[in-house]
Write a structure and sequence with these properties.
By secondary structure, this protein is an alpha+beta fold. It is built from seven helices and nine strands; from the N terminus they run ααααββββαββαββαβ.
Length: about 230
């Protein structure tokens, strides 16, 4: 059977996919950096992460298609044999795409899997690393889907706070600082409201587990923002 593609086509496709991947990353970073609203930043970051989750497997499928098109018989048989041998890994990888595309699943969330509860530390190609009381554990995506899992929201681990700020700059600048600060839990977006006094604002925010409001006060003071700790209000 006549070849549809050549090795040169495969090489060009590799360069195209790598270049496009870098370009998409760059565009996403620029848009996030230029966005003034914290909600927009978070939306763009989520969309870019979700898009890249699907970009890689689609790129791999494109490379396989071109590779097979170079020599249908030899390369087709080779791809089939490799697919059969590594079928468990391929299935785990595909299950991982579904797992990571779940909007409720992200780094830092608490997962209950069988009799093990842990916090998602990082995603890997074929499984996820959970950090629990018994230490870190690698869970294969296929095993996780077979046995089932649940996402637990532990709001008791979060610390809701209120600060009164004296601002000379635009309030969007403060929200941008909070967006880049790991102390603030962005699952609960901070709110900044004007109060009656000139240049005075009330900031409602949620800290990550283990973080303290004093650390955030110190962080803000580095940018010339004076803040006063207030008791959280309903």
């Amino acid at each position: 059977m006549e070849s549809v593609f050549t090795w040169n086509d495969l090489f060009k496709l590799v360069l195209l996919l790598v270049g496009l991947y870098g370009l998409l990353n760059l565009i996403a970073r620029i848009l996030i950096m230029l966005s003034k609203k914290i909600r927009t930043k978070r939306f763009l970051r989520t969309v870019s992460e979700r898009a890249l989750i699907f970009y890689i497997p689609l790129g791999i499928c494109s490379l396989i298609a071109v590779y097979v098109g170079i020599n249908f018989l030899v390369h087709g048989i080779l791809v089939l044999v490799v697919g059969i041998i590594f079928f468990p890994q391929v299935r785990a990888y595909l299950n991982g795409i579904l797992f990571r595309s779940n909007s409720f699943v992200r780094v830092g969330e608490n997962i209950l899997f069988e009799d093990y509860a842990g916090t998602i530390e990082r995603f890997q190609a074929f499984g996820v690393i959970l950090d629990g009381l018994d230490g870190k554990r690698f869970i294969n995506y296929t095993h996780m889907y077979r046995s089932g899992f649940s996402v637990k929201k532990k709001h008791d681990d979060l610390h809701h706070q209120v600060l009164h700020l004296t601002l000379e700059e635009k309030k969007t600048d403060v929200l941008d600082l909070l967006f880049e600060n790991p102390l603030v839990n962005l699952n609960h977006l901070p709110e900044l409201k004007k109060v009656s006094e000139p240049n005075e604002y009330k900031l409602r925010f949620t800290l990550e587990k283990g973080a303290t409001v004093e650390e955030l006060v110190t962080f803000l003071s580095q940018y010339g923002i004076n803040s006063t700790i207030k008791t959280p209000q309903a």
